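Structure (tokenized):
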């Protein structure tokens, strides 16, 4: 029942986090022009993709803390020092690039650099929380940027009436700093390690070696899911990118349960034996698929209604790409769960890297070819094709590595469903009033 319980907890946190992403997306969609929203979402994607380097340290955290039993405080302090150094280098690079630009473009590049100064470190701290199964703290780190950034953006638009891209992006960046500050406070007990022990250069080199591969995985993975957005902006214009961003945002919602299950099982995947880890991973895929594929079918059916209600008539063009992306999202449900097995348990991030690079190449090359013929629906086609191909390949590699049968990945078992009934009964018992007892002498 542990996987079901922790999955539900992670799901609740993810739903809360996704709600802030959704609110921010709806408000910007209705407040900004299509062109400005395309520029805004593209800038946020760049911040997220480059900042995903911090996810490389998150993967290193899982490996060194869960698998190699290194102290969480030691790993976190060394990772944060590395992260802030990388963030500073990114800020300097953005200042150098901005010096050749003018007007709005210059301001956007500078804002991206300022955000990246802390974005990498925030992600790195989150990885340490996940490696010790601090699900609530990890969830805040994972979605705190949406919470703080979304609140700042919504306040900036609704309270102060700023409806152009640069002020709105600046509000988002302010939110990233608030999220980093809150994350640092959550980790306050670990900070004492650094002054008392200092930097461990050997551990840093090990983190860099491991993280250099997982960092490329994180960046390539983010881009493989967001490359279409950037290509649409380049080929079809920022207005098309604004419409396509809405389809991507809704299709990403299908991954919320698989990500929750991956979060819940992350530490155990690294700490269990190889055989038990493979069995747990297969069970996690079944848990995720049980609900996610039903959600995919429902979203495919109600796509026109969902787009119109949330974003308005201007975004009707997002319906077709959304339906195409739903197919790709459904096919990609097992991806993150199987990637955890290869990275955290097997210590083979290169396997995930190569598949992610292939996905990115298909996205970029296929998107560039198909957008010219089908508009932003072409980007959705390329994304879905890449998802089907690389997830199918990952499944084959996992089955060969684990020795499990294919049916163990998709065929629900009685124990899977029983876990949720047992969990539900435990919740009901938890809400029942305690029985009244009478002590001797009471009437």
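Design, position by position:
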């Amino acid at each position: 029942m542990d996987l079901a319980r922790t999955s539900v907890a992670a799901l609740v946190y993810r739903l809360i986090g996704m709600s802030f992403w959704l609110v921010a997306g709806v408000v910007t969609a209705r407040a900004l022009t299509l062109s400005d929203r395309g520029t805004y979402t593209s800038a946020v994607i760049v911040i997220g993709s480059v900042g995903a380097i911090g996810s490389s340290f998150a993967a290193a955290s899982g490996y060194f803390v869960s698998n190699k039993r290194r102290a969480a405080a030691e790993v976190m302090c060394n990772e944060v020092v590395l992260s802030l150094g990388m963030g500073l280098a990114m800020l300097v690079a953005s200042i150098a690039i901005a010096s050749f630009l003018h007007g709005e473009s210059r301001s956007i590049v500078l804002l991206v650099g300022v955000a990246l100064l802390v974005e990498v470190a925030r992600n790195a701290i989150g990885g340490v929380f996940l490696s010790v199964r601090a699900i609530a703290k990890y969830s805040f780190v994972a979605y705190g940027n949406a919470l703080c950034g979304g609140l700042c953006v919504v306040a900036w638009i609704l309270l102060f009436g700023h409806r152009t891209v640069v002020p709105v992006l600046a509000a988002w960046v302010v939110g990233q700093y608030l999220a980093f500050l809150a994350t640092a406070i959550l980790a306050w007990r670990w900070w004492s390690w650094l002054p008392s022990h200092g930097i461990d250069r050997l551990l840093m080199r090990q983190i860099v070696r491991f993280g250099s591969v997982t960092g490329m995985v994180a960046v390539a993975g983010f881009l493989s899911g967001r490359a279409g957005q950037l290509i649409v902006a380049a080929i079809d214009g920022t207005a098309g990118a604004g419409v396509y961003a809405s389809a991507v945002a809704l299709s990403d919602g299908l991954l919320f349960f698989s990500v929750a299950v991956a979060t819940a099982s992350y530490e155990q995947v690294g700490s269990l034996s190889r055989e038990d880890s493979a069995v747990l991973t297969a069970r996690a895929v079944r848990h995720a698929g049980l609900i996610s594929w039903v959600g995919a079918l429902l979203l495919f059916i109600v796509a026109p209604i969902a787009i119109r209600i949330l974003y308005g008539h201007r975004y009707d063009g997002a319906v077709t790409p959304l339906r195409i992306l739903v197919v790709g999202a459904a096919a990609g449900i097992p991806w993150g769960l199987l990637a955890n097995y290869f990275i955290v348990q097997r210590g083979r991030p290169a396997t995930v890297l190569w598949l992610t690079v292939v996905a990115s190449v298909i996205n970029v090359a296929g998107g560039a070819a198909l957008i010219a013929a089908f508009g932003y629906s072409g980007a959705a086609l390329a994304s879905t094709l890449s998802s089907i191909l690389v997830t199918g390949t990952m499944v084959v590699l996992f089955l060969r590595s684990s020795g499990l049968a294919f049916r163990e990945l998709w065929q629900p078992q009685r124990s899977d469903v029983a876990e949720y009934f047992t969990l539900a009964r435990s919740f009901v018992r938890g809400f029942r009033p305690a029985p009244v007892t009478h002590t001797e002498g009471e009437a």
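Reviewer-requested clarification: Residues 29 and 311 are 6 Å apart (CA to CA). The chain has one domain: 2-423.
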